[in-house]
Amino acid sequence: MNSYRVPQLAKKYTDYDMIRQHTEIPSFPDSRARLLQVFVGRTDEKVHDELYALATSLVQLAMDTHDRIDTISGERREVEMRSRQLNVLAGDYFSSRFYQLLAHAGKIEMIGKLSGAVSEVNARKMTLYERMKKLLVSAEEYLRETVQLKMQLFLSFTGMIRHNEASLWNNLLAEFSYCETIMEELQRMNDEPNFYHSYAFWHIYEYGNDDERNTLRQPEPDTRAWSGMVLKYRIGEFLLDKLRECTHRIQLLLQDEEDPLGLHEINAILEPYLTYLQPSHAAVRED
Questions:
Q1: Which Gene3D superfamilies match (predicted)?
Q2: N or C: which end of the chain has fewer CB within 10 A?
């Protein structure tokens, strides 16, 4: 199997000054991309394992970038307009590169599968967003749906995976998607411009009192009040516990395998999460 260098290859498409200056590139789907390369690398398509991981990551970045486009009506400052336009263009650009890469390799069927997965993701997002607008989503439902959205593109390759490894592939993909989600939610917890409709938001809305729910319903909630609620409901501790449980489930999955495939590669994907959970790294600022 090729060494893992997908994030470095992706920089060819993401490291443009115009994009970097005016928009924020979403988190790279590192765990999912690396896991895909591990499993495809054990099939007859192993010569394309890196290509598939790169192309799928670019599609994911395209979708995540488009998700950053605000839908607020009304006038905007010039810098806000520029950022919005760049989010649109950057997402379109990443998507076009995915088509180019797979078409150049003659993998037209895979273009179709990933395009179909994009449609499924968008439909699922719309259903979730409609429920979110009506404030009908629980914290656990939000988390579960976010994980499923992260998995969908990569599930396009399930039919390619060895039959006796398909179950492990699906389980590990779900768990690593969960780990990536938790890490993002830990960052969003104190990212005041982005705490709307985060796990912390839904947890507090679900378990908070009437005054706290009223605060969350305001167009611009008091950031001091938000910080106080994050502390009160120990959101960081909840998320760290979930991350800890997830890494434990991954370790159990690997232990249950009689002939663990690419175990050193899987452990390499898991290692950053285990490191984050070490006492010296796991202190989550909630003030």
A1: 1.20.120.1450
A2: C
Residue 10 contacts by C-beta under 8 Å, 6 or more apart in sequence? 28, 54, 57, 58, 61
Q: Residue type for 104, please?
A: H
Q: What is the pTM of this model?
A: 0.89
Could you give the CA distance from residue 245 to residue 247 in angstroms, rounded to a whole number? 6
Backbone dihedral region for residue 25 (phi beyond 0: left; psi -120 to 50: alpha; all else: beta): beta
pLDDT grade, residue 257 (50/70/90)?
low
Are 195 and 201 in contact by the 8 Å Cβ rule? The answer is: yes
Look up tokens 């378990």; give the residue: 207
Q: How far apart are CA 84 and CA 80, in angstroms?
A: 6
State pLDDT tens for residues 54-98.
999 999 998 888 776 554 444 445 445 555 566 666 667 788 889
The answer, yes or no, to whether residue 23 has pLDDT greater than 50, is yes
Q: Quick one: pLDDT band at residue 280, thresholds 50, 70, 90?
A: low
